[in-house]
Please model this.
Amino acid sequence: MNFEFTEEQEMIRQSARDFAVRELLPGIIERDAKSEFPTEQVKKLTELGFMGMLTDMKYDGGGMDTVSYVLALEEICKIDSAVGVIMSVNNSLVNWG
Model:
C-alpha cells in the first residue's frame, strides 16, 4: 500500500501553506485581540476553492479527495485555527447539511 501523497495533494498542501503565511499570518494577533471575523481572508479562501473542496464538481465544488482537504485544513490551522474552523464548518455544511 502506497502512503505517499500524490503530486496534486502536495500542490494543494503548498498552496494552502502559502496562502496561510501570506494572508493569515499578517494581522492575526490584532484580529484575535479585537475578536474580528476574517472577512477578507475568508473571501480569498473561497476564491481559491478551499471553502468547497469536498463538494462535487457538478455543484461547482472542487471535487477533491479527503486527504487533500485535510492537508489544506492542517496548513490553514497551523497559522490561524479560527479560519480553519470556518473552513471546516463550511465544507461540512455544504456537503452534509
Notes: The mean pLDDT is 94.
